[in-house]
Amino acid sequence: MRGSPLLRALLAFIVILMLGFPLRHLTRVHADANADAAGKATPAPSPTNAVRLQLTFTNRPASVRVLHLGNEIWQEKPAAEEIERDLKMEFPKEGVDLQFEIEWPGESLSAMRAILTDPEGNTLEKSVWGSGAVTEVVTFP
Length: 141
Description:
By secondary structure, the protein is of the alpha+beta class. It folds into two domains: 42 residues; 92 residues, Lipoxygenase-1. The longest helix is centred in the first third of the chain and has 37 residues.
């Protein structure tokens, strides 16, 4: 056997240590660049705008509640067959989820058509079907 095992281990440790400094510098630069990119990619919250919500029912409901992010934004008791209102709420580009809680008298099949006009003037239409008490989350893209 040639050479000392202790000397070979010390030489390998020095080589690994010398390669560690440039590697640390390269990875730290990438981490800083990723942190800057992540900070710039976060959009500012959009201002609260008025959206128009029109609800049309096949049968007159006993009550209607509309919730956004768990907060009640509109309630009608008793409701007419056609109702509409301007709602002040945040409307991001990705869309908005509205939860409808509708109570129709009787057990006959009924429907609701919801037409939402976003702050840019685009009209989005969705429907909810059911009988009795119905709770449904509807996404407006």
